[in-house]
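Example S7 (structure tokens).
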């Protein structure tokens, strides 16, 4: 019975006779790891104070008998990927954990020799079926969303890419071109990409330095006067102290999206404090990104926000690099909320809605001018959408899911390999630094930031540098 299922999974996309570079999955195991935040992180109207990491170990083998192991990790960001006010946190987390075990089994059952891109393309429909099964088994009041399934599967996909790179003694970002992949990009995207391969869209060497985006949650203290109770762990408590501590020159501002006056006041206050802090350290240039986490009721709210902020704090508005998905993630259900006018002032990027090429194309039709690339949606999809955003001349940014440790190394790797990306979020160092401890001495240029930049020049080793 299982052999037949394996053949079913292999045959739709993989012709007979695997390439010599292809690999087979020999082992794959998942485990979970829990951490508490040092301080809550408020976004989308909710505060998050903990994280469960999904860790994935795997081993791939080549036909020659050579094998290599891979590792990847990703936060199970259930609050973000499975927002449901009527379902307890513990329940959505348990659903993701159950789904992770199913995804691991589905992946282990794949016995063909293939490239990780093809394994992911073949198995994603099976992962989505498993999500439906999990929703039914747990009697959830609403089904597990596709975004949640992508997040759950992402470290499995990344671990395969890590092992595949190491199997060939090369960085994972350099083994996705014509030399290693059987199909051109039209097989994964659409006919516009016929004859093209990922190595045309991915840098052969990483960008040497990538700026970090420092996040300011909606409840984060800005000055000492805002601190109700100091954390007392040696790290800064406030934005005014984080700026000199990490040399911050890019700030992501979480906004509410349902209180225009508060949102404008928040940006103006952050700009005022940042101006003072940067003057003390002699910094001349810095930037902001604004994240409403889909809470704006309509595009008119976005336009009112832009115009009022520009009128009240023109210097602050001039520092805005982009606005992140302001309205609801179901774009098809709100086609009236087009971003053409809003994007004339600053790029507006799709984030929560971005679950595949179809969503990207719909977003373009609705006036979005950029896309947020995230490791938590899978290495395979991220590379493919990185190519698509370049083909369509869209603004590109890389964000994390408050990713610590290996997950952040993965995010930094993406930021350093996708052309045109200037910065990447580095939230875990603020909210869950305990999960970074084991990495601080191993990759100090990635985890001990004092000048506002990551030293991504070190991310050249075999695999994804996550193990």
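Recovered sequence:
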């Amino acid at each position: 019975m299982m052999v037949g299922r394996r053949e079913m999974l292999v045959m739709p996309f993989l012709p007979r006779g695997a390439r010599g570079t292809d690999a087979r999955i020999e082992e794959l195991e998942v485990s979970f790891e829990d951490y508490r935040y040092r301080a809550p992180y408020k976004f989308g109207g909710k505060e998050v104070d903990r994280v469960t990491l999904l860790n994935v170990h795997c081993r791939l083998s080549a036909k020659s008998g050579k094998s290599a192991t891979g590792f990847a990790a990703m936060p199970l960001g259930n609050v973000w990927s499975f927002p449901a006010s009527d379902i307890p946190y513990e329940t959505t987390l348990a659903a993701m954990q159950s789904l992770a075990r199913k995804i691991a089994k589905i992946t282990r059952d794949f016995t063909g020799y293939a490239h990780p891109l093809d394994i992911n393309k073949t198995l994603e429909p099976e992962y989505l079926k498993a999500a439906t099964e999990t929703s039914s088994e747990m009697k959830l009041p609403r089904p597990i969303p596709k975004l949640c399934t992508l997040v759950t599967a992402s470290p499995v996909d990344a671990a395969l890419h890590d092992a595949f790179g190491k199997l060939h003694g090369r960085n994972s970002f350099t083994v996705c071109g014509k030399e290693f992949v059987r199909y051109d990009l039209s097989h994964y995207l659409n006919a516009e990409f016929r004859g093209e391969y990922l190595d045309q869209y991915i840098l052969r060497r990483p960008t040497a330095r990538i700026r970090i985006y420092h996040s300011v949650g909606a409840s984060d203290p800005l000055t000492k006067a805002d601190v109700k109770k100091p954390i007392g762990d040696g790290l800064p408590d406030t934005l005014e102290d984080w700026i000199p501590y990490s040399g911050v020159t890019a700030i992501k501002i979480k906004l509410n999206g349902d209180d225009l006056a508060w949102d404008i006041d928040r940006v103006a206050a952050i700009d005022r404090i940042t101006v003072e802090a940067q003057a003390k350290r002699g910094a001349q240039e810095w930037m902001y990104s604004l994240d409403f986490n889909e809470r704006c009721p309509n595009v008119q709210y976005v336009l009112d926000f832009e115009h009022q902020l520009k009128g009240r704090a023109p210097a602050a508005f001039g520092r805005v690099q982009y606005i992140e998905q302001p309205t609801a993630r179901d774009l098809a259900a709100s086609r009236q909320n087009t971003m053409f006018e809003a994007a004339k002032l600053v790029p507006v990027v799709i984030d929560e809605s971005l679950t595949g090429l179809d969503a990207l194309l719909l977003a373009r039709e609705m006036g979005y001018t950029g896309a947020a690339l995230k490791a938590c949606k899978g290495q395979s999809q991220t590379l493919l959408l990185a190519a698509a955003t370049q083909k369509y001349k869209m603004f590109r940014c890389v964000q994390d899911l408050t990713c610590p440790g290996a997950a952040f190394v993965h995010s930094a790797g993406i930021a350093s390999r996708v052309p045109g990306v200037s910065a990447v979020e580095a939230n875990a160092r603020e909210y869950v630094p305990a999960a970074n401890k084991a990495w601080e001495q191993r990759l100090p240029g990635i985890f001990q930031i004092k000048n506002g930049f990551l030293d991504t020049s070190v991310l050249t080793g075999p695999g994804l540098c996550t193990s």
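Notes on this example. The chain has a mean pLDDT of 95.
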